Here is the input.
Amino acid sequence: MDFSLGAELEAVRDLAREIFTDRATPERLRAVEGSPARVDDSLWADLAAAGLLGAVLPEADDGAGLGMAGLCVLLEEQGRRVAPVPLWPALTAALAVAAHGSERQRTRLLPGLVDGSGRMTLALEEFGPADPLRPGAQAVEDGTGWRLSGVKAVVPAPVGARHVLVAATAHSGPGLFLVPADAPGASWEYAETTTHDLSGHLTLDGASAEAVGAPGDGAVAELVRNAWVALAAVQVGVADGALAHAVGHLREREQFGRPLATFQAVQHQLADCYIDIDAMRVTLWCAVDALAEPFAADAADRAALVAKWWATEGGLNTVHRVQHVHGGIGVDTDYPVHRHFLWGKQISTTLGGAGADLERLGALLTDGAVTA
Here is the structure.
């Protein structure tokens, strides 16, 4: 397969890299981690002004039509600098609305994403051994609308989000439902996560909602699949950025009069990181390629799960090794590489860990589908 990006995606990559490098400095990250929302709103506005937020949306919705490929390029650059902006939840939600929402929903919601004035977030996870493809939250028809009840766990970046795209189960199957973040019947309990960002546990008690598409139409499975791939893209960047920190550190530090980078044991550790990252990147772009095939959902599921498993397993291994070769400063919570460790750790458990990924992949290979 040819995984060269092409001119448009290279332009997105280069522009995103420039913005993240300039803005996501250690000093800025430290300041955002101490802010109430834990989101860099200035960086979000810069990404919008550069046209990067809208680049993933279809041209019909004033985007550049780059879809998941454009999103993954953007997310990899974010991960490389561990920049505190909610790209993966906001943009995967926006792609779901663009694909399944009504014209009124797209017109109401997507322009705010493009210009940075409004964003959404996702509510996919629940407490306990829950499967995001089979949500426990319930949706009941109420006239022309819907009422949602249940609890959604660790909703990413709820502060500042105007709407939440919730996965819930109706009588006809799982569906996506749009809920205003401040809707009556929706209450929040905020919780700090491993990466120092702020999540929210969302309790829905008959909260009014509108369906995005029709329950049972496969939109939940598509969104979860896209989320798996998006998380894999962030993790590729996180691991690659961590490895860059290790290379710089080992070139400069000396032991017994020699740079640490010349010791064979250290070289083997970094070689293992390089191999894992290369496998993560290859499986990521195999998944992106599979997602572009509209009539091959099973193949896309398999590719997405393989990419997520590699990101979970290989990414976690990489950030552990990199922290190890940094010695004592690797556990300094304010040292830059430690943030990569925290991001890698959190991503490795989002929407299920490596064991859950293998279980789903095994079910797909034996039964033919993981979709609900």
